[in-house]
Write a structure and sequence with these properties.
The complex is a heterodimer of chains A (385) and B (332). In chain A, 72% of the residues lie in helices and 0% in strands. With 385 residues, chain A is mostly helical. Chain A folds into 2 domains: 95 residues, no CATH class; 210 residues, MetI-like (MetI-like fold). The longest helix of chain A is centred in the middle third of the chain and has 37 residues. The chains are: A mainly alpha (385), B alpha/beta (332).
Amino acid sequence: MRILDLWPGIADYRRGRRARGVVLGALFLVLIAVAVWRHAVIGETLRTALARLVPGERPPLGVRDIDRIVSSLLVSGSIAAILASTAISAVRAGRRAPARRERESRWVLFGRQLLRNRLAATGLALLAALYLAAIICPLLTPYDPVSQGDMLAERLLPPSIAHPLGTDSFSRDVLSRILYGSRISLLVGLLAVGIAVSIGVIYGAVAGYCGGRVDGVMMRALDMLMAFPSIVIIITVMHLWRSYSIWLIIAVIGLLSWMGVARLVRGQFLVLKQKEFYQAAVALGAGPLRLIFLHLLPNASTPIIVSATLRVGNTILLEAGLSYLGLGVQSPTPSWGNIIYDNRNLIFSHWWIPFAAGLAIVLTVVAYNLLGDGLRDALDPRMQE
Amino acid sequence: MSEPATDSSRAPFVRARSLEVRFAARAAIRARGRGEVLAVDGVSLAIERGETLGLVGESGCGKTTLARVLLGLLRPASGKVEIDGRDIFAMSRRELRRWRRDLQIVQQDPFGSLDPRWRIGAIVGEGLAIHRIGTSGERRQRVVETLQRCGLPAAALDRFPHEFSGGQRQRIGIARALALRPEFIIWDEPVSALDVSVQSQIIQLLLELKEEYGLTYLLIAHDLSIVERVCDRVAVMYLGRIVEAAGAERVFRRPVHPYTQALLASIPAGRPGRRRRGAAAGDVPSPLAPPPGCRYHPRCPLAMEVCRREPPALLDRSGHRVACHLAAGSPH
C-alpha cells in the first residue's frame, strides 16, 4: 500500500478497475479544485445554513440562496463521500480480506468498452463537466445572471479577469449568463427526450408486440402524425397558450418527437419476434409481460439508448432555435438561444458574446453525438470479448 | 410401435388432423386471395407415446412450420392438433400456457436460440420461473441437475451464451427444454448446425434422455443417417405434404415414393460410384406456384400422365402410407 493510493481512484486503477479509477480520480480532482478555489463562498454559505438551524430569527431565503446552499452541500458532501469510501476500501485492502470472485457484470464490460473509445470518452467527460457546471454554477461565478449592474460603469465591458467574457448591454456578466443558461438547455434536452422515449417505447412496443392489424392501424396513425411539420405546431401552440414557460416547451417538444422512437422500437420488436430465443420463450409458456419486458425490450435497448443520446443533441438545438426566434425561454432568464438573440446586434462589436453561447451549444451537441456513437459501439455484443 | 395410427381404443399421444397453414407472400400487405403460400397442406400424423417420429424433407418443405403448429405457436388455417386427446387450439390461452410445460422444442440454430443478454442459469430456469415450480432454491437445484445431465458444469450457471461453443449451446438449449420435465420434445434439426464430431455426442444425449425420462420425440432432420439411427417411424414431406410414412425400417429398406428413393440415394454412404436410381434432379419448385397434380412430378423420373393432372391420395397399405400414383396402381 502506497501513500499515493490514498488519492481516490488510484487504488482502483491499480487493481485493474481502470474506468472506475479514472472517473473517480478525475471527479475528485475537479471537486477539490472548486472547493479550494471557492472555499470562502462555500464556507460562508455553509455557516449561514448552519446558523439557520439554531432557533432564532430567520431571514427568508431567496431562490439564489437555496441554489448556493445546495451547490455548496453537494460539493463538500461529494468530497466527504469519496474520501470515506476510499478510506474504507483502503482499510479493507489492508486487512487482506479474501477477494470475492468478481463475476464481471455486463456494465463493467460495457464501461470498459466505452472508455476505450477515445471519442466517446471525450464526449462523456465533456458532458460530465457541462452537467457538473450547470449544477454548481453558483459556486463558479459570483455574479447574479439576472439583476442588472451599474449601467454606466459596467456596461459592455470587454473580457477581463473580473468578467472573463465581458458584460452585456444590461451590465450583466456574460459568463454567468451562459453558465446559468446551460441549466435550461441541458434540462430541456434531457426531459424532452425522456418524454419522447417513454411515449415512443410504449407505443412502439404495443404495435410491435401485437403485430398484424393492430400494428397496421397504429403505424398509419403514426405516419399521419409524422406528416405535420413539428416546428409549425410548436410555434402555434406557444402562441395559443401565450406562455413561454420552460415546462411547456419541454412538454411540447417531447410530445412532438416520440414518433421516430416508436418506429425504431416497433421495427426492433418485429425482428426480435422472429428470433429463435423468442420462439423458445413462447414455447416455454411465457406471458406477454415477460416477453416484452424480459426478452424484447432488453434486446432492443441498444438502438433505443443510442438514438435517445443522439436526440438530446437535436433537442437542445431545437430549443436554442426556438429561444432565438423569441418563442422559447424569455429574457431575463438566460438560455443559450436567447443570449444569441439578445446580443445579435453586437455580433461585430462584441462578437465574443454570441460566439461563446454558440460555442456552448456546439460543444454540447457534439459531445452528445460522440457519446451516442461510442455507445453504439460499446453496446454491440460482438465488440465484447 | 410401428403400427398404423388408425382409430384404436387408445388415441395416440400427439395427433394432427389435416392441418393447413397459409402464409401471405408479403406479410406487410394483407394478401387478398393472391400470393399465398400453403406451407402445410393437409398434413395428418400421429405419434404414439414413447415413440420417435422422424420428419424428413428438403429445406422449405414446411417441416419447421409444422413443428410450430404442433407446439401451438402458430394457428393453422384449418385442421386440429390433439395432444392426449385434447384439441390444443380449442383451449383458452391460460390452459394452453399450462400445457406448454409438457411440449418443448430444441431448436436448430444454437446461436440464435439463446437470449444473448441472459445468463445460462436464467435461460435454463426460465420455464420453471414461468410456471412457478418450486422455490428459487429448488429451481436452482433443478437447473444445476439438468445442466449436469446435459453434460455442462454447474459453473456455466453464471455465464453468458457467447462464452460457449456451438455444441455447448445446443446442450444448453436441450437443458432448457428438459428442465420442465416435458413429455414431448420436438427436435428441429438439432445437429445440422454442429460439427460432425459434436453431432454424434448430441444424438447420444438425445437417445439417453429418451430412455431416462420416457420421452416422446418428433425429430426433424434432413440428415437421413441420423433419422435411421434414432427414429421408430419416418414421415417424408415434400412441399407441404406428406408423401410417405411408415416404420423406419420399411422406409429405409423398401422406399416406395420416388422422392423418398431420391432422398435415400443422396446419402453419401455405401459403395462409391454407384447411385441408386432416381436421384432428385433440379430444385424444389416455388411454393408460391406449386405444380398441379403430384407436386413432385416435374422432378420425378417416373412421372406419368396422371401425375400431371391429379394429386395422389395418401393411401395406407398395411401401415405403409404413400402418396404416389405408381404405388396406388401396383401392390408393392
